[in-house]
Design brief:
Helix content: 55-70%
Distance between the termini: 90 Å
Radius of gyration: 30 Å
Number of strands: 0
Largest sheet: none
Order of helices and strands: HHHHHHHHHHHHHHHHHHHHHHHH
Structural class: mainly alpha
Number of helices: 24
Strand content: under 5%
Shape: elongated
């Protein structure tokens, strides 16, 4: 009797919902998906089966087939297709739905969607959420996604997307693919390093932020992280600079510490060719100019700030910086008449070293002379306001060199 009722229910579904789907136009199917989404949020696998009289897989098969056939077209139903599929894949005790989705190449289809030029940002975000559901199902699913070049596709989406919602979904997925996935964690790590060089400030910020999570998972720091990371200091976006400094602080515990410190000190004294502003081809001499700082000066100021932070947080790092001639280069940056923030940040960092290390203070006083030194030590933050060109030249041409170990004052 139970079997007869079941057959009757299946027949009703087959002759009702499925027949309406098979014969329905795009608008009819879209309406059906909207109803499905409204009525079946957070249902379990057994509940979905009950909804379709144990024939839920027949509906999922139709749904995924339609998705594969239409996703590259101007598909106005893409969002509904993805959200409906997500209901099946996220259903607890519904592993069979996930298996069916994988069997028809669902991962590859959705990975292509996130980088389609014609796809809307909202649809890309929905596609990333669907991939997140797959990744959350376990390690073997993460590996399947990575084998389908998923890390590259998600990283490209993060770099090119114009929507913060989409970028955040991509960032979260990259972090998930790096966790509990030892076979591909290094691939995710390297993709995040490459993202530091992309043109999107938001993507750069998210990449640096995620690297702080992924670095301890990976363990050893890849030397290739140094140059892209230091390039972030050229940005005018303070949130990117913040994440760059936080990542530098983290990397002080890894084998790239020496290279990072050496490069930070070097960047306080930019090469002459980098400080020459290239003329614009279409520059109109009659139009008033806005003198934006060169990226190299922005980098100089941010590096000076970073050095001060590192010196304050660790006596060991402060001593290493001093031995790398950081005092000499900080004084050089203080003499930068082209960018006030370089002068200010360098003055603040040097004042800390001078206050805490008597030998530094002695060398600074000798190099500056009594008048300039008094101005500096009284208020380092406003030194750049009161300094004249001759005093700036004294700072730029200083010969300070402090070799050996440094004793810290009590």
């Amino acid at each position: 009797m139970g079997s007869a009722k079941q057959q009757s229910a299946i027949s009703n579904v087959t002759n009702g919902i499925l027949r309406e789907w098979d014969k329905g136009s795009k608008s009819v199917r879209k309406r059906m998906l909207q109803d499905f989404i409204a009525q079946n949020q957070n249902k379990t696998g057994p509940e979905l089966e009950q909804e379709f009289a144990q024939a839920a897989s027949l509906f999922l098969t139709r749904l995924t087939a339609w998705l594969r056939l239409t996703y590259m077209l101007n598909n106005s139903c893409l969002n509904e297709q993805l959200r409906s599929t997500a209901i099946f894949l996220s259903a607890s005790s519904g592993h069979k739905f996930l298996a069916e989705f994988l069997e028809v190449g669902g991962i590859l289809t959705v990975l292509e969607i996130i980088n389609l030029k014609q796809a809307k940002e909202a649809d890309k975000a929905e596609a990333l959420r669907l991939l997140q559901i797959v990744a959350n199902a376990g390690r073997k699913y993460k590996e399947l996604m990575c084998e389908s070049y998923g890390i590259r596709a998600v990283a490209e989406c993060l770099a090119k997307s114009k929507s913060e919602e989409t970028q955040e979904c991509a960032r979260t997925l990259l972090e998930t693919l790096a966790r509990g996935n030892p076979k591909y964690e290094n691939q995710a790590y390297k993709a995040l390093i490459v993202l530091l060089l992309c043109n999107s400030p938001k993507a750069q910020q998210m990449a640096a932020q995620t690297l702080r999570v992924v670095q301890p998972i990976v363990g050893a720091a890849n030397p290739s992280i140094v140059e892209p990371l230091l390039t972030l200091f050229k940005t005018l976006h303070l949130e990117v600079q913040y994440e760059a400094i936080e990542l530098v602080k983290l990397l002080m515990s890894y084998e790239v510490q020496s290279e990072l410190l050496k490069n930070l000190v070097t960047l306080l004294r930019p090469a002459k060719e980098d400080m020459i502003k290239k003329p614009e081809i279409l520059e109109d001499p009659d139009v008033p100019k806005m003198n934006a700082p060169l990226p190299v000066f922005v980098q100089q100021a941010a590096v000076a700030k970073c050095i001060g932070i590192l010196a304050r947080e660790s006596t060991d790092l402060a001593e290493k910086l001093i031995q790398l001639r950081v005092v000499h280069n900080l004084m050089y940056a203080m003499g930068n008449l082209d960018y006030a923030d370089s002068q200010r940040q360098a003055s603040i960092s040097l004042e800390f070293l001078s206050t805490n290390y008597p030998i530094v203070d002695d060398h600074v006083k000798d190099a500056m002379g009594d008048v300039l030194y008094e101005m500096f030590i009284t208020n380092p933050e406003t030194l750049y306001v009161n300094m004249n060109p001759i005093q700036a030249d004294v700072l730029r041409s200083n010969k300070v060199n402090i070799p050996g170990l440094i004793d810290v004052t009590e």
